[in-house]
Design goal:
heterodimer, A: three-stranded antiparallel beta sheet, about 20% strand, disordered C terminus, B: alpha/beta, four-stranded antiparallel beta sheet, binds pyridoxal-5'-phosphate
């Protein structure tokens, strides 16, 4: 299977690998996927006082496209509000990385990871309702 | 020849390069100046010469498996041989019964042929291997029924390299009057075969896993006691009616020469390849959380199938771009399931997803093995640094207790 240059670039130089303090009140953690399915993504976001995402970190177990999708997502969410981040659609990832059809599930997983991280953060801040209303 | 050839080829169980000596023998059978005739032409010297070459090749193939040359039927490869043997024997014996026994770890050429028989109304039992990949003969014995006509068990497994005790199976099937087919595509030059001592009735072979060309194979069909099969390809009645079609002299000569060399050089080659395989394993086994898949003793010398826990196989191969290996990870195939062979051993999905198959062979060098060790260690380390599962493992989280949001 041939990979696109963008997938290879993210795979070889993954952006924002790491871990944020999951207990901090301004950090949201989303972990999606399952080892049995061959991919697990952990995405963490940290917001500033204005509710804007100032930092994002990831770790991913999965194929090259899964790693590239999560790496790309950490770049995409930075500087966005939670609502803006929540509006990111998996097809944007597919297009940016030129993922083939068999790898679309990697982008879906990345979209799910954003949603999970945002939900975690909102829950921590007692905003669970706001999320379901959004 | 430089002793480090990049990319390094460690996928000898997928196919092998053709040995130069084999290529030479083949190219002598193509042009006007060469031995190009139709072996079935009885009326002139071109045909006779071609027939002589085919006879010589038939003898070389028969010798490697302890058979009579008259028991060799040329086919296009092991897939066709498996089809001919299984459909041919099941169909021929349909009056006696419609039950076939095989294993879950067989090659698709056997499994898919059995599925076809099921569609035709046959019943097939797929036996589970033990955790080491080997068949428990007692499980086979208790699966045999009145109406069982055929047992098909492979000799050497293509993924994990384990060697089934076909002699024990053959003793059992012979005593019950059941036809015994063996897929031995991976055996030539690696494990000795003796169809008489092993009581094998039908045996599938191909050339391209033993330094011969692709597109040629053979089926051994026992004459005493005579095993009868129904032809699957009809035509001019070649190969005693069992497989019609003009014989491909150059391919057959290639397979004959490859098998002659395999017979001659097997012992020495196995020693050398085994030392290299052990060197590879020694270079990797001190890493944390690595598991060899399949029995380490009952195994061909050139195979190392190993799982690097918490690292996914496809991404690992992506890191190893200068090394050609294969993976049991689902992401490398069209299906979403990881290797059915590893699953059948009872390996969990994680370990199945994390596996790499290294297969070494005639042209593998120490330098290539050392290069591979260094590259694999580097890649596994890099990917574990990226892996949330590795983090959790290091934090002492038992991954089996985590509620995963399966997708
Ligand atoms: C065990 C086994 N059986 C059958 C085959 C199919 O052989 P061929 O490619 O000659 O049809 C292979 C090779 O892929 C194999 O490893």
């Amino acid at each position: 299977m041939a990979y696109s240059d963008k997938v290879i670039d993210h795979y070889e130089n993954p952006r924002n690998v790491g871990k944020l303090d999951a207990d901090a009140n301004n950090v949201g953690t989303g972990m999606v996927g399952a080892p049995a399915c061959g991919d697990v993504m952990r995405l963490q976001i940290k917001v500033d006082d204005n509710g804007v995402i100032e930092d994002a970190k990831f770790k991913t177990y999965g194929c090259g496209s899964a790693i590239a999708s999560s790496s790309l997502v950490t770049e995409m969410v930075k500087g966005k509000t939670l609502d803006e981040a929540a509006a990111i659609k998996n097809m944007e990832i597919v297009e940016e990385l030129a993922l083939p059809p068999v790898k679309i599930h990697c982008s879906v997983l990345a979209e799910d990871a954003i949603a999970a991280a945002i939900a975690d953060l909102r829950e921590k801040r007692g905003e669970a309702k706001a999320e379901s209303a959004a | 020849m430089s002793s480090l050839n990049i990319p390094v080829y460690l996928d000898y169980s997928a196919t092998t390069p053709v040995d130069e000596r084999v290529a030479k023998a083949m190219s002598d059978c193509l042009t006007l100046q060469g031995n190009f005739g139709n072996p079935a032409s009885r009326s002139h010297v071109f045909g006779w010469k071609a027939e002589d070459a085919v006879t010589e090749a038939r003898k070389n193939v028969a010798t490697l498996i302890g058979a009579n040359p008259k028991e060799i039927v040329w086919t296009s490869g092991a897939t066709e041989s498996d089809n001919l043997a299984i459909k041919g024997a099941a169909h021929f014996n349909v009056k006696k019964g419609k039950h076939v026994i095989t294993m879950k770890t067989e090659h698709k050429a056997v499994l898919d042929t059995c599925r076809q028989l099921e569609r035709e109304g046959f019943e097939v039992t797929y036996l589970d291997p033990e955790e080491n990949g080997l068949l428990d003969i007692n499980k086979l014995a208790s699966a045999i029924r009145e109406d069982t006509t055929l047992v098909s068990v492979m000799h050497v497994n293509n993924e994990i390299g384990v060697i089934q005790d076909v002699a024990a199976i053959g003793a059992l099937t012979r005593s019950k009057g059941i036809v015994f087919h063996v897929d031995a595509a991976q055996s030539p030059g690696k494990v000795a075969l003796d169809v008489d001592a092993m009581n094998i009735d039908l045996l599938s072979l191909c050339a391209h896993k033993a330094y011969g060309p692709k597109g040629i194979g053979a089926l051994y069909v026992r004459r005493k006691p005579r095993i009868r099969i129904e032809a699957q390809i009809h035509g001019g009645g070649h190969e005693r009616g069992m497989r019609s079609g003009t014989l491909a002299t150059h391919q057959i000569v290639g397979m004959g020469e490859a098998f002659r060399l395999a017979h001659e050089e097997m012992e020495e080659e196995n020693k050398r390849v085994e030392a290299l395989r052990d060197r590879l394993y020694d270079g990797l086994k001190d890493m944390e959380e690595v598991y060899v898949n399949g029995d380490l003793e009952q195994r061909i010398p050139g195979n190392l199938n190993i799982s690097f826990n918490f690292v996914e196989g496809e991404s690992l191969m992506m890191s190893l771009k200068d090394i050609a290996v294969s993976s049991g990870s689902a992401c490398t195939s069209d299906s979403l399931e990881p290797s059915y062979v590893l699953r059948a051993l009872g390996r969990n999905d994680e370990l199945a997803h994390s596996s790499l198959r290294f297969t070494l062979g005639r042209f593998t060098t120490e330098e290539e093995v050392d290069f591979t060790i260094a590259e694999v260690r580097k890649a596994v380390e890099k990917l574990r640094d990226l892996s949330p599962l590795w983090d959790m493992f290091k934090d002492g989280v038992d991954l089996d207790t985590v509620q995963w949001a399966a997708h």
